[in-house]
Amino acid sequence: MATLDGLPPLRDVIDRFGLDAKKALGQNFLLDLNLTQKIARTAGPLEETTVIEVGPGPGGLTRAILSLGAKKLIAIERDARCLPALAEIGDHYPGRLEVIEGDALKTDFAALVPEGPVKIIANLPYNVGTQLLINWLLPPAWPPFWQSLTLMFQKEVGQRIVAKGNDDHFGRLGVLCGWRTEARMAFDVPPQAFTPPPKVTSTVVHLTPRETPMPCDVAKLERVTQAAFGQRRKMLRQSLKPVGGEALLNRAGIDPARRAETLSVEEFVALANLI
Ligand code: SAM
């Protein structure tokens, strides 16, 4: 059957290279190139852009990113079984795909792209996705090496990423994302879109860095959010005791009887700047 890009259907690729999904590597593959193009398009125009993809697997999203014109794509994959399939894609788009076999958690992403900001697009392995996002949000220098992140997560994680105050999903991740980025949920992807299907709905989130986030020491912000959300049902006068408790809250002009999830990102930053 013909495909959008003239390469073989992904189901055939998976059969030919024996890429049966490994749970331990968070392998839930997307085989519909219309869907992978929709994800890649969420990142905006790709021509003239260098893109980084984490976990290309058999290459569904990789093919979409290249077919939409990315100047260069650097893909980091831990599963060596996928490399021959990815090499075929590289041959189809000469000089544009670089595949690195390795662990994304141990990769120095900024060093891969000394030439400037990149777009990161990925259907992330569920077991390392949140940690990768946090790593991309934490560098002391800002704006970072990336100009946007377009990432697939389990929907519940997506809700935590975009959550603002007064929301059950609001927590440490929401504060970090809200402080340094503009984050939005783009669209949901049902389990049956994946092979094999995961148990829950997934969602694509899109984040862009704020040009000038409020000045704040990341480590202090982490201390405040850790204390506040570690006991999220308690009043802040109690949960924030390890970082200054009621006296700190009074200095920030915040009612000590409030609970963590009712604070705004700005209020968390104010508290961090006072400890
Ligand atoms: N991009 C493909 C797609 O959309 O069909 C595959 C996505 S699958 C959810 C996650 C991919 O990440 C798998 O190919 C898996 O082997 C890879 N992976 C898992 N852990 C990784 C790690 N620590 N570093 C790099 N790749 C990893």
Structure description:
By secondary structure, the protein is of the alpha/beta class. It has 2 domains: 10-209, Rossmann fold (3-Layer(aba) Sandwich); 218-274, rRNA adenine dimethylase, C-terminal domain (Helicase, Ruva Protein, domain 3). It is 36% helix and 19% strand. The protein contains 12 helices and 9 strands. It has helices at residues 10-16, 33-41, 60-67, 83-92, 109-112, 129-137, 155-162, 172-180, 218-230, 236-239, 245-252, 265-274; strands at 29-30, 50-54, 72-77, 97-101, 118-123, 146-154, 181-189, 194-195, 202-209. It has a 7-stranded mixed beta sheet with strand order 4-3-2-5-6-9-7, with helices on both faces. A two-stranded antiparallel ribbon has the order 1-8. α8 crosses α12, α9 (218-230) packs across α12 (265-274) and α11 (245-252) crosses α12 (265-274). The longest helix is centred in the last third of the chain and has 13 residues, at 218-230. The radius of gyration is 21 Å and the shape is elongated. The termini are far apart. The structure holds S-adenosylmethionine. Residues 25-30, 54-57, 60-61, 76-79, 82, 103-105, 123, 125, 128 line the site of S-adenosylmethionine.
Question: What key attributes describe this structure?
Answer:
seven-stranded mixed β-sheet; 12 helices; two-stranded antiparallel sheet; binds S-adenosylmethionine; Rossmann fold; single chain; 2 domains; alpha/beta; Helicase, Ruva Protein, domain 3; 275 residues
